[in-house]
Amino acid sequence: MAVGITPLIINESESESFMKTQTMNVITKIGLLSVMLLFTSVGSAQGQSLTNRLKANIPFDFSVGEKKLPAGTYSFGRASQNSDDTVLAITDDDGHRKATRLSYSAQRLHARDKATLVFHHLDDQYFLVQVWPAGATIGRQFPKSRSEREVQRSLAANSSNGKTTTTVRVETVTVVGVLQ
Question: Is 80 exceeded by the pLDDT of residue 53?
Answer without folding.
Answer: yes
